[in-house]
Design goal:
Layout lengths: L12 H9 L4 E2 H11 L8 H14 L2 E3 L10 E4 L1 H25 L4
Antiparallel strand pairs: 1-3, 2-3
Helix pairs in contact: 1-2
């Protein structure tokens, strides 16, 4: 059922929510707020953690830094096509986990 053709990896929840937050261009503070909101408070990103993750994802080509306006200190980031592919593969992997869990446990709550 699950085939990750890009890279054989499982994203951390933090990485997952950062990528999800970058479907529209955002600056760091916006990413922090959206990740916390989407995760219902489970993900609370510290600035150092966020910017370290953003740098790593830029290096991997999953996100890109948008051009900064002259005089502005706000850096905005956006997910790339490769990042979208990684995110979609992770969503499919998570669906498989839930499907298999439901098969064994029977969807009990």
């Amino acid at each position: 059922m699950y085939k990750n053709m890009n890279e054989n990896l499982a994203l951390t929840e933090t990485t997952y929510y950062i990528l999800l937050s970058l479907y529209k261009p955002q600056h760091g503070y916006g990413i922090m707020q959206q990740a916390e909101e989407l995760s219902k408070g489970r993900i609370r990103l510290a600035a150092g953690t966020l910017y370290g993750a953003l740098n790593t994802m830029c290096e991997k080509g999953w996100i890109t830094l948008l051009p900064v306006e002259e005089g502005s200190r706000k850096k905005e980031y956006k997910i790339t096509g490769r990042g979208v592919s990684i995110l979609k593969s992770e969503i499919e992997r998570l669906r498989e986990l839930v499907y298999n869990g439901d098969l064994i446990v029977g969807g009990e709550k």
